[in-house]
Every structure is written in C-alpha cells, then in structure tokens.
Amino acid sequence: VLLLSGSYSGWGVVSDFLELDAAVDHFSELLKIDSSDWRAHCARGRARQELVESYAVIADLDEAVRLNPCCETYRRRCCADANRGMSQRALADLDEAIRRDPKSAVAFRERAVVFQNFGEYAKSLADMHKAVQIEPTSVYFLTCRGQILLRNDQAEQALADADNALRWIPTYLYARELRG
C-alpha cells in the first residue's frame, strides 16, 4: 500500500490508498483519458519505481518532464535516475530543477545527497547550507546538514544543528541521534 490517489486535486478520490499494482492500473486508466496529465505520469512512475519497473519509471518521468518541465518533475526523475545508477543525469536533473526554482530547499537537499555520493563533500555541504537558508526552521534540513558536518569532522557545528532542531521539536529522533 503506497499511493494516495486523492492527493492529486481534480482526480477525485478512488480510495485513500491503492495497492501498487492497482495504482499503476489506476494511473494508466487516467492517462488513457488524458495522456497530457503530467501528475498521472509522475504517480504511475512512482508506483512503478516501488515495483522496480525501472525502464517504465524512466519512460513515465521522461514524459512528465516533457509535458511539464518544472522543478517537481525534474526532481522526481532525478530519484529514478539515481536508483538506476544514472548519477550524472540525476545531477543534471537537479541542476535544472534548481534553475527552474532556486527557492526549492528540497532540490538543494537532493543535490547535496548526489554530491555526497560523488564524494564532493564541499559541494554537498554548500547545498545543505542553501537548503537551511531557504527553510531555516526545517528540523529535517538542519539534521541533514548536521550529518554532513559530522562526516566532515565538524562535530561542533553538527551538534549546533542538532540543538537548533531540538529547539523546534524537542522529541525529534534524528536530531537526538545526531547528538549521540
């Protein structure tokens, strides 16, 4: 059970959740009605990704990008690219997502992960700084940055991020784990 079909406005609620196979079928039916529905391409791609139908995922997300080349579609395709080992294309998708929406903290965080996977820790940290600048009250972004700081032997700054996150949500598990 994975996808919230009712979370896409204008589609109507079929049920609160759909089994993955049913989700693929549901969004395929929607695409028969309107093949230009980029959200349906994204949703079917997400379900296919969970089902490990990697080539079909890429086809759906390529179509979503073609229909609506926005930050969200590039970010979604990036995740599928990274799962298939297409790290350079994932990075290019995130560069484009950020170009289209330079205030997307999520895109900066996702690109930070790609940079980290490449071993480019300075670039990873720079992107996490930007994500925190955009959303300074996000405990998630603070702890993500803290983890990168900790991996780069900057424990004092990592603890400061954990403490800052705990000021916002005192029970936040990831910040507590970061503190050790």
Written account of the structure:
- The structure is a single chain.
- With 180 residues, the protein is mainly alpha-helical.
- Helix content is 72%, strand content 0%.
- It has 10 helices and no strands.
- The protein has helices at residues 20-33, 38-50, 54-67, 71-83, 87-100, 105-117, 121-134, 139-151, 155-168, 173-179.
- α3 (54-67) runs antiparallel to α4 (71-83) and α5 (87-100) packs antiparallel against α6.
Compose a concise summary of this entry.
The protein has helices at 20-33, 38-50, 54-67, 71-83, 87-100, 105-117, 121-134, 139-151, 155-168, 173-179.
Features:
10 helices; elongated; disordered N terminus
- What helical percentage do the residues reach? over 70%
Low-confidence stretches: 1-16
- The overall pLDDT average reads 83
Radius of gyration: 18 Å
- How far apart are the first and last residues' alpha carbons, in Å? 34 Å
**Helix and strand composition category:** mainly alpha
- Helix-strand string: HHHHHHHHHH
| Strand percentage | under 5%
Number of helices: 10
Main sheet record:
none
Count of individual beta strands: 0
Anisotropy-based shape: elongated
